[in-house]
Write a structure and sequence with these properties.
It is built from ten helices and three strands, in the order H-H-H-E-E-E-H-H-H-H-H-H-H. The chain has 231 residues and is mostly helical. Strand 1 (34-35) and strand 2 (42-46) form a beta hairpin. The longest helix has 21 residues, at 115-135. It is globular, with a radius of gyration of 27 Å.
Length: 231
């Protein structure tokens, strides 16, 4: 629906859904931060965020960028971009270019993309997609909710530590929020354990099982010398 109503924001919302960026991270994304090959996966290097709070604006009308949430100053988060998102970003750049400072998503006269602008675009598209009844519910109420698609990564069997690193979460927070989304992983885990056991069986039993343990508590006499025991 966004592609129909405000196509210049399609890739912006794509960053939230396909790469689990926070809205303020997508607002700060620059072309120089993106490796976008002609095909296949790309990479986004996140180093800054542009919060939507009024405190982020300066008195002269410029804006202030901040470091990544839950990360020390200067930290960079590397986020793989799936082929569909890489293609979106290439198409966006070809159609709309960048702001003077290289940002891919911008507002009027090259200023920062405001939360009110992408918020209204989201609500309009959401109403068209869901209809009035569902739109009145809390389903996908905020653009931020697109980030919850990372539950699909967990359900696909992805490693929680890697998923947390991509999303900018701690593992503890990730599992607390999304543990209820993981279904059917018992069978997957059983298959993985079976594979490990089968490979181990092909190499034969562990040597520690077939060989007697060697006691190393007492020193071994050196070759050629007699050991002396007290009489």
């Amino acid at each position: 629906m966004i592609a129909r109503t405000q196509p210049e924001l399609t890739a912006f919302f794509g960053c939230l859904y396909y790469a689990a960026l926070r809205p303020e991270e997508a607002v700060a994304l620059r072309l120089a931060d993106c490796d976008l090959p002609g095909s296949g996966w790309g990479v986004l290097r996140l180093a800054a965020a542009t919060p939507r709070t009024a405190a982020a604006w300066t008195s002269d009308g410029s804006y202030e960028q901040r470091g990544l949430k839950h990360r020390p100053d200067g930290a960079i988060r590397m986020v793989p971009a799936p082929p569909v998102l890489a293609a979106m970003l290439r198409a966006h750049h070809a159609a709309y270019g960048t702001a003077p400072d290289g940002r891919l998503f911008y507002g009027a006269r090259g200023g920062p993309l405001s939360g009110s602008v992408y918020g209204r675009a989201w609500q309009s598209a959401r109403t068209l997609a869901l209809g009035p009844e569902l739109a009145a519910s809390g389903l996908a109420r905020r653009p931020y909710d697109l980030r919850h698609a990372l539950s699909l990564w967990l359900n696909a069997g992805g490693d929680p530590a890697q998923i947390a690193a991509r999303a900018g979460h701690s593992v503890a927070v990730l599992l607390t929020v999304y543990s209820h989304c993981i279904h059917g992983h018992d069978d997957l885990l059983n298959q993985q354990i079976d594979q490990v056991l089968e490979r181990a069986a092909g190499r034969g039993p562990c040597p520690s099982v077939t060989k007697p343990a060697v006691c190393t508590d007492r020193a071994t006499p050196r070759k050629g010398k007699r050991s002396h025991r007290p009489r």
